[in-house]
Amino acid sequence: MLFTSGNKRGIFLFLMLSLSLFSRLDAADIRASDPFIDSLLETLGPEEKAGQMILVYNSPYAFLRDHKVGGVLVMQNMLKEPCSLRIHLRRAQKKLPIPLLVTIDQEGGAVNRLSPLTGWKKTPSARELGEWEPDSVRSYARRVAAKLRRIGINMNLAPVVDPAVNSENRETYMGRKNRSFGNDTQRIAPPARAFIKGFSDRNVLCVAKHFPGYDVTTNSDLEAAFSNADTQAIAGYASVYSAIEPLIAGIMMTSIRYRAVSDTPAVFSSSMVSRARSISGDKIIMTDDLWGAALRGYVLPDSTVHPARYPDSAFARLVESAVRAGNDMLMITYPQKVPLMITTIMAMAENDASIKAHIDNAVRRILKAKNKLGLIGTKAHR
Predict the structure, then answer these.
(1) Domain membership flag for residue 380
(2) pTM value?
């Protein structure tokens, strides 16, 4: 069964329900807050709060210390010297006032960050895992998670829960790259749940992606991608997240533009982020890489500006869009932009009380994830 179509009336209901649920859930986060998390949050200044919202390409310890970032992204090239990486991460986790979410996107198949390590050159893709029994998927995921844990990685930006075939019966980019478990919720949810449980068994959190569902045939990191899915089809894609929500630590937004809902990329669309929030509650909602060519091009359409000369003013607008949409954590693979991101977020908080409240809630959710991992314990790590 493929995801199907709806009508125009569904667009209005979709938007209103998403915004209503977002408001109630954000308020519920405050009421249900952990006293320890709240007390820790109160000790953080504006710069520290802004830093916690940033997930940056893994960088030297001094950089992480000076900018007080919330997390780092480990890439394949960094695993060529796993011992050095392990020592670096242990030092950071021990010395930083608030330890890091150390992330990787270890999906398997074509996206196999562990390939430099002995015995890990090849790993099964999501399409292959989708054919396995759930117990076998969980056992495999447990083994991967144990390896990540030994290195110092505590969060996996996976699984991909996007459809292999979209509502127009076309194979999606994720399907073509074997990064999808299957065509619909019934095929995707069982292996995805088993995958996440295996990581949880070894205390590694999982972030599902790419919300609400990567249903286009092109790579949206490199070029603007538009989806023709209507609201009912979008709801079908998003239903996978509802099916796995109790197990995940967060949701990553996509940069695809869903014409039925918004002319903006989903990651910058408050209605789309609100929809993710209505499912995820107090889990982290994060962006994909904000330095992606397609997102930079969204701020400067038809721009031929070389990345090294991309205007700071344009990137600041991009950061503002991500925060205003309601994202909790912003990913960036260009560390030199972190200072600009921090000053941008701080300025937004200073000038807008509602943004300041959102930033507090975002950092609260990030601290909750760290507390679940045992990174900050039951007394302030300061």
Answers:
(1) no
(2) 0.90
